[in-house]
Amino acid sequence: MVVSPKIAPSMLSSDFANLAAEAKRMVDLGADWLHMDIMVTLKSEIFNSYFTLYSRLYNSLCYSGRHFVPNLTIGAPVIESLRKHTSAYLDCHLMVTNPMDYVEQMGKAGASGFTFHVEVAKENWQELVRKVKSAGMRPGVALKPGTPVEEVYPLVEGATPVEMVLVMTVEPGFGGQKFMPNMMDKVRALRQKYPTLDIEVDGGLGPSTIEAAAEAGANCIVAGSSVFGAPEPGKVISLLRTSVEKAQPTA
Ligand SMILES: O=C(CO)[C@@H](O)[C@H](O)COP(=O)(O)O
């Protein structure tokens, strides 16, 4: 195996009122990571940082209104609570417009991975990656469906590189959307350039779409509704893993 499979149920599809039990259930069923979707409002972020006309304009043009995504989920306090109940790798995907503001609190809360969006970190990604590492987390970069894959190359090749690229296979914001097969061109390009990189796919992954993703070269698989909605979630986790294993070239 060149890269190992990491199956990461998206806790966005879990019962939030029973998060600790849901996390344990997933780990017991064979999950490698727990994927945590962090989405916050732009409003709270801009009060924490600089409120400029530019950022207002930029965000209204790029991010349909005042949020990076049109949904609200969890933040560092929930990660901190969950961390008391599990030692699992918490794969945190920050769908926020100012990831720098969250590095310290996410590190202290016990996040394992900190994946930010390239669309909002074009200027300061080097400092961001350094801070993520010194806060004890593994840095990753995510890209939305409309973002060209070339935009993440400098982050993978930098002096302090990211350790994972997350290719969104739906528009970020909600679980239960349809997988976008044309995103596999990005995965293929990344795998060809970086044979040992962790490449994650997120959105619409399940038994009917895993083959396309695994064949393209994805090894970290986020799956929400296909796992939590299955009568036997353990079988889905194991099928996802087998598909990745089968598709990987042997070293
Ligand atoms: O980040 C997101 C949505 O923004 C994902 O993590 C979803 O939670 C994946 O859910 P499914 O598409 O697998 O239901």
From TrEMBL:
What note does UniProt attach to the cofactor annotation?
A: Binds 1 divalent metal cation per subunit.
State where substrate binds: 10, 93, 173-176, 204, 224-225
Q: Output the CDD domains linked to this UniProt entry.
A: RPE (cd00429)
> GO molecular function, one example?
D-ribulose-phosphate 3-epimerase activity
- Cite the binding residues for a divalent metal cation: 35, 37, 93, 202
**Primary enzyme class:** isomerase
What is one Gene Ontology biological process annotated in the Swiss-Prot or TrEMBL record?
pentose-phosphate shunt
Give the EC number(s) listed in the UniProt record.
Answer: 5.1.3.1
Question: Keywords on this record?
Answer: Carbohydrate metabolism, Cobalt, Isomerase, Manganese, Metal-binding, Zinc
What is catalysed by this protein?
A: D-ribulose 5-phosphate = D-xylulose 5-phosphate
Pfam family for this entry, one: Ribul_P_3_epim
Q: Which cofactor does it need?
A: a divalent metal cation; Fe(2+); Mn(2+); Co(2+)
- The active site annotation covers 37 (proton acceptor), 202 (proton donor)
In the record, the note on similarity to other proteins reads: Belongs to the ribulose-phosphate 3-epimerase family.
NCBIfam families tied to this protein = PRK05581.1-4
**Could you tell me what this protein is called?**
Ribulose-phosphate 3-epimerase
Q: Which species is the source of this protein?
A: Brassica campestris (Field mustard)
Highest lineage ranks of the organism? Eukaryota, Viridiplantae, Streptophyta, Embryophyta, Tracheophyta
